[in-house]
Design a protein that fits this description.
Blueprint (H helix, E strand, L loop, with lengths): L2 H24 L6 H16 L5 H20 L8 H25 L15 H6 L7 H17 L4 H13 L3 H14 L4 H14 L8 H12 L4 H13 L3 H13 L6 H17 L32 E8 L12 E8 L8 E6 L5 E6 L15 E9 L11 E4 L3 E2 H4 L1 E6 L1 E2 L2
Parallel strand pairs: 1-8
Antiparallel strand pairs: 1-4, 2-3, 2-5, 5-6, 5-7, 6-9
Length: about 425
Amino acid sequence: MSSTTFLLATAVLVATALLILLIPLLRRPALRTTELRAQLDRLQEAHGAGLIDDATFAERKAALSAEALAIVDGSAQQPRSKLALALAIALAASIPFATYALYQKIGNPNALAFAGVTQTPPSAAANGAPDANAAPDLAAAADTLAARLKNNPDDGEGWLLLARTYRQIERFADARDAFERANKLLPVSADLLSEYAEALGLASEPRALFGEPEKLLDQALAMDGEHQRALWLKGFARRQDGDAAGADAAWTKLLGGMEPGSPVHTAVVEQLNQVRSELGQPGVTAATPASSAPAPAPSAAPAPSDSSAAPGIDVDVSLDAALADKAAPGDVLFVFARAQAGPPVPLAIARLSAGQLPTRVRLDTSMGMVAGVSLEQFPTVVIGARISKSGNAQASPGDLEGFSEAVEWRSAGTVSVDIDQIRP
């Protein structure tokens, strides 16, 4: 809904409310004919009992008849109450201004817009920051709510609201912690589990959805196998874990419940076609369901992906000899690229095992975590490598890691990363 449409709709609602309030106040109510009839009946009873003479009876009866005729003609109405008139004027003057003031404080017409699968707009991805005008207000609101929750720590809905606010202003670690509190206090739901999983993945370093976040997504899908947010994130978790077939399965199922040709459908198709290209499968179009594309027979081995077809950078990863006894072959190795100046989300990420070291890994433009955020948009990057004892992408004390200097990935060709640090 556009701002103009929203304001017009608001004006109509305010005008309607004013009419409902003012018409009763400004109407000069007419005497009802039933009341005149009752007066005539009492007059006749008094005349019959001899309480009034014929002349008085005739005079009063004529007066009642004239008043009844005036009502029918619409010419005899009681005068407006001065108090009612004053109240009507006050309401007419104050309600529009009060509505505007309230809107300025808490209103947001964009909140009326439906948001399905979340995508990062290209403009936001380019600068890596939320709206500069909105962020300070949201940050202040978050701080106020957090202070209030200190005195009411069992308010599950409050923690959920705080978590979503932190997520909006990109305070991902705080969002993760608030979602954790909300998840413990509120009834378990697929919506809450999916949001919690996303926050957990965004708060990890490097950011990734497999591991603990994916366990939450699996719980959400166990409750609702068609849950769109959970399927969307599940696809990313599988892809980041090197399971293109798993990502294909999640996103194919997601497309089955969406309207073909819609903007959200198109975004999912874009991601799905990337993994289908890796699997050697035919792609789908934004106007056709994913199920229309034939899948290979179960016994057929997927065709190897041609990673060199996408622009990227080769990374030689090694483990410093001084730390060789700190790593086990079964430990998980993450290799990732992130922008030198830009959003902290990984622009490309690969998962291997520490037993493969030393190794060469190619990170390319098809390996972004979020649609619209990849190596393509950021010419200068830092390459990192981390050996995780827990198997989770979120950095933990004791993990082994190393980073390159900032490099121009398009021209660097190959960069070397030596894992030579222990994370404190």
